[in-house]
Every structure is written in structure tokens, then in C-alpha cells.
């Protein structure tokens, strides 16, 4: 018996030594995927009036709506572009889509090269009346304060529109002509699905049979303290995008009645149980695709302990999943998310309703579909009294992965490294919806990146309170687009 115990102990010790050995080998062979030999470029001086032009753009409340918009405000934004960027407006070929969305074509010297497309949208979400008094400045005041520009759209997404235009105007003023044709497109209804903006622009390119080398839209950013174990800022290039759907859950019971004689279950109670089941049974976490590549790129740059964790997912995946699932932002990168957002039921506090409904929003990771999400919900709810209906007007499938070995990704990676030299650059998954999802048929690759550096706490300003951007950060964004255009012509 003693010999058997010794043998088992030796076998266990050998197994531990073997596992540790494999982990160390994998850790030390977990090589960097960052570009080498790329030097930071000096920031070009930006016009002192650039921030004033940006401020003017913020002062126009271009709030989009699924039903109607203030056409005079959107027309004023068009006039602002024409007046403030005269060379762009005069020298580039301009196409108007559905009155308020615009395409600019900057012809290159070599028409045989496939063009690139730089995108943005200038519509913004409204400011919630209940939160208006929590803003320290007027949401549409375009105020300059503490070396920052404040207001709705300073990040999402007038920053990209104005930054692209500033960089193009700067290059035109220097007599520059790109080798590769550059297209610019600016949508006016991205915040309400992009049907008349981004979607129609993509359709225009399809009809004209224009194919792009790559497309760049809004998306991920350079984030400080993005991951535990990573000291450097993390610049994430979105190579894929989550899908989107909202399901309506409706509880229907045969009888209502007086609240003084309630049955064992009411429509509200049945619906509540269904929502509870969905939240208690989240979609599974998957470390693969864009998120898997993020961990490959970022993991190799982490401190030794975290590097070991990410280099050895074959044994550490369970631990990482447990830790990452506690962080809502990290969890959103790893699974299809479930978010009950709206409830409706009843007509009076003493009347038992026969129906009650809820809207539940899902952001779908690549590998799953709108249909598979609906099937999952029905199986989890498992109640014949609950009807699950899909939103047929606005649902989108997850966008496929774009390449990380293509011309477009390498040019983006180099341009980011030149403008943000301290950052670690990695692919990533965009968890929100952008207009870029409509452009898969007209481009080899679609990427999503905003050239600004923020802390995690700054991200709360997007669609939130006190949205703002530092003047220096805006100038750097202009320099990034300038550098990207130059690099894409090499």
C-alpha cells in the first residue's frame, strides 16, 4: 500500500512538473504581435480655428429620429461643412444621399488601386430631460472649458466627421493628392438604424460597383487601464461587430378580474418569472474570434502572471471566464448579452391585466444568429403562456471577422503606432452597432476605430452625461487621419 501511495505521489508530482513545464514553454513562446521598427511621427500643427469649427458643429443639435428630424438643423450642418472646408467642398466630387447624407470622392493618381473609405455620422442621440440638470455645461453649447470641448457629439460621432474633414482640408492646402482614391461618407441617421444614411450609402456603392480595399468607421478606441496586467494603453481595432435584436415577450392569460381576488399567477407575475429565467441563464461565454485575437495580441504584452494565464487558455480558461464575467464590459465581449429594457402591463392598479409585455435587447456575438437567440429564449422561458416575437424592422446579424493580415489592418496598426506610440494594438469585437455593418459587400475588410485616448471612466460620457473631448486629443485625432491617408497611399 505504501509503495502504491508513493507511486501515485510520484505520478502526481510528475504530472504537475509536466503541466508547469508546458505552461512555461507556452508563456515564453507567447510572442509579441506588435509591429517592430515603427517610430512615432511628430504631430503636425493643427489650425487654431479647428476647435472653433468643432464647437460650431456641436452647437447644432442634429438629433436623429426614426420618424422625423429638424431639417433646418441638418441643413445648417451641411452649410457649416461647405463654409468651413472650402477646398474639400470644391476639389472633391460630392454626392448627396437622401438629402442629408454625403459622399466625397478624392480621386487618386493610380485608379488601378482599390480605394479606401473613411466613415462617420453626424447625427446624435437626444439628451434625456431628466438628466439635463446634471450636465455641468449646456449639452449643445459647444463650450470650451478646462482645455476640453463639451457637448453631445464630441465623441459620438462628430469627432470623427470633423477630424476627417480637418485632415483632408490640411492635405489639400499642401497640394497633396493621394495615390489611392479616398472616399469619405457621412451619414445622418446612424443612431436610429442608418436606413437613409449608411445603409443607402452602401447601396449606392454596390450599384456603382465600387469595391474598397478597406473601410474605417467609428468603433473601438485607445483605452487606459483596459485590462488587468497591462500597463500600457490598449488600442483596439474592431474587426467584427455584434449583431442586434430586440424580442418582445408577451404573457397572455385568459382571465383578468379584480385585484382583490388575485389568482395564484397574474400576467405580470408570469412575465416576471420569464425575465428572471433569462437573467439567471445567460448565454455561454466564448473566448474565440475577435475576442480570442484580442487576448492573443494583448496577452503577449502583459506582466508575467497574466501573460501565463492568456498563453495557457487550455488550462486557465475557466479561471479567466470566472473573473471576466464579473466585469460587465468584459462580459459583453465574451457572450451574447441579455438586457430587459421596457415593461408594459395593466390599465389600473386594481385591475388584473390579461396581458403584460416586455422588450428584451440582445447584442449577438459572431457565431450566433438572430434566429438562434430567439430559439434560446424560447427554450429558457419554456412557458406556453409567453409569446416570443422578433423585431422585424430592426435586427442585424453579427458582422463577419475582417482580416488581421491584410493591407488595411497593417496600415491601421502602423498609423496607430505612429500616433499613439505607447499603446498596445490589438483586434477586438465592437459591442455596439455601427453603420459599417452595411458595407460588408463593398469592401475586402471593414474596421472600426476612433483615434482618441480615454480612461474607462470617460466612456460613460458616450450617450451619457457631460460628454467631452480634450482639445489635445482632438488634434491628435486629426493627425491620425492625416497619417492614415498618407500611409494608405504608399
How would you sum up this structure, described in words?
It is a single chain. The chain is of the alpha+beta class and 490 residues long. It has 2 domains: 50-241 and 399-488, Zn peptidases (Aminopeptidase); 243-390, 2-Layer Sandwich (Alpha-Beta Plaits), CATH 3.30.70.360. It is 36% helix and 21% strand. The protein is built from 14 helices and 17 strands. The protein has helices at 2-28, 50-58, 71-84, 86-91, 158-173, 198-207, 267-280, 289-299, 304-311, 313-324, 328-334, 370-381, 407-419, 471-488; strands at 93-97, 101-106, 116-121, 144-145, 148-150, 182-187, 214-224, 234-241, 243-252, 257-258, 337-345, 351-352, 355-364, 386-390, 424-430, 446-455, 468-470. The strands form 4 sheets. Strands 1, 2, 3, 6, 7, 8, 15 and 16 form an 8-stranded mixed beta sheet that branches. A hairpin with a 2-residue loop joins strand 4 and strand 5. It starts with a helix and ends with a helix. The mean pLDDT is 93.
CATH superfamily of the largest domain: Zn peptidases
Strand content: 15-25%
Helix content: 25-40%
**Average pLDDT, to the nearest integer?**
93
CATH class of the largest domain: Alpha Beta
Helix and strand content put the structural class at alpha+beta
**Outline, from the CA principal axes?**
globular
* DSSP helical segment count: 14
Distance between the termini: 74 Å
Give me the CATH fold name of the largest domain. Aminopeptidase
* Count of individual beta strands: 17
Query: Which architecture name of the largest domain does CATH use?
Result: 3-Layer(aba) Sandwich
Low-confidence stretches: none
Number of domains: 2
**What summary fits the major beta sheet?**
8 strands, mixed
Give the C-alpha Rg: 26 Å
Amino acid at each position: 500500500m505504501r509503495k502504491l501511495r508513493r507511486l501515485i505521489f510520484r505520478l502526481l508530482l510528475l504530472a504537475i512538473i509536466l503541466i508547469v513545464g508546458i505552461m512555461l514553454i507556452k508563456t515564453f513562446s507567447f510572442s509579441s504581435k506588435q509591429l517592430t521598427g515603427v517610430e512615432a511621427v511628430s504631430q503636425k500643427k493643427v489650425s487654431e480655428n479647428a476647435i472653433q469649427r468643432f464647437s460650431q458643429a456641436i452647437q447644432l443639435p442634429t438629433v436623429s429620429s426614426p420618424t422625423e428630424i429638424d431639417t433646418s438643423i441638418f441643413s445648417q450642418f451641411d452649410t457649416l461643412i461647405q463654409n468651413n472646408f472650402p477646398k474639400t467642398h470644391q476639389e472633391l466630387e460630392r454626392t448627396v444621399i437622401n438629402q442629408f447624407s454625403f459622399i466625397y470622392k478624392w480621386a487618386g493618381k493610380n485608379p488601378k488601386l482599390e480605394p479606401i473609405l473613411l466613415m462617420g455620422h453626424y447625427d446624435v442621440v437626444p439628451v434625456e430631460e431628466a438628466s439635463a440638470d446634471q450636465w455641468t455645461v449646456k449639452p449643445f453649447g459647444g463650450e470650451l472649458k478646462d482645455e476640453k470641448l463639451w457637448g453631445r457629439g464630441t465623441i459620438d460621432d462628430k469627432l470623427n466627421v470633423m477630424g476627417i474633414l480637418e485632415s483632408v482640408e490640411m492635405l489639400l492646402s499642401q497640394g497633396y493628392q493621394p495615390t489611392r482614391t479616398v472616399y469619405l461618407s457621412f451619414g445622418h441617421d446612424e443612431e436610429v438604424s442608418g436606413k437613409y444614411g449608411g445603409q443607402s450609402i452602401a447601396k449606392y456603392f454596390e450599384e456603382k460597383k465600387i469595391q474598397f480595399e478597406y473601410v474605417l468607421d467609428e468603433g473601438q478606441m485607445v483605452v487606459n487601464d483596459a485590462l488587468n496586467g497591462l500597463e500600457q494603453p490598449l488600442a483596439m481595432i474592431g474587426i467584427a461587430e455584434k449583431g442586434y435584436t430586440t424580442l418582445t415577450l408577451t404573457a397572455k392569460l385568459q382571465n383578468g378580474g379584480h385585484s382583490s381576488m388575485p389568482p395564484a399567477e397574474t400576467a405580470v407575475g408570469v412575465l416576471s418569472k420569464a425575465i428572471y429565467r433569462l437573467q439567471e441563464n445567460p448565454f455561454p461565454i466564448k473566448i474565440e474570434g475577435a475576442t480570442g485575437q484580442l487576448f492573443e495580441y494583448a496577452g503577449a504584452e502583459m506582466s508575467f502572471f497574466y501573460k501565463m494565464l492568456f498563453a495557457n487558455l487550455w488550462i486557465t480558461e475557466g479561471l479567466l471566464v470566472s473573473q471576466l464575467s464579473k466585469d460587465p464590459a468584459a462580459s459583453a465581449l465574451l457572450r451574447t448579452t441579455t438586457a430587459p429594457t421596457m415593461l408594459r402591463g395593466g390599465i389600473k392598479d386594481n385591475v388584473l391585466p390579461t396581458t403584460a409585455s416586455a422588450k428584451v435587447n440582445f447584442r449577438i456575438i459572431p457565431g450566433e444568429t438572430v434566429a438562434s437567440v430567439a430559439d434560446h429564449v424560447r427554450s429558457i422561458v419554456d412557458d406556453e403562456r409567453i409569446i416570443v416575437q422578433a423585431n422585424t424592422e430592426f435586427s442585424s446579424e453579427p458582422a463577419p471577422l475582417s482580416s488581421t493580415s491584410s493591407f488595411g489592418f497593417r496600415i491601421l496598426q502602423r498609423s496607430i503606432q505612429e500616433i499613439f506610440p505607447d499603446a498596445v494594438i490589438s483586434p477586438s469585437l465592437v459591442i455596439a452597432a455601427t453603420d459599417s455593418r452595411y458595407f460588408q459587400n463593398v469592401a475586402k475588410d471593414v474596421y472600426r476605430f476612433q483615434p482618441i485616448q480615454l480612461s474607462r471612466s470617460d466612456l460613460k460620457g458616450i450617450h451619457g452625461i457631460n460628454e467631452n473631448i480634450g482639445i489635445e486629443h482632438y488634434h491628435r485625432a486629426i493627425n491620425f487621419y492625416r497619417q492614415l491617408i498618407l500611409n494608405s497611399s504608399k
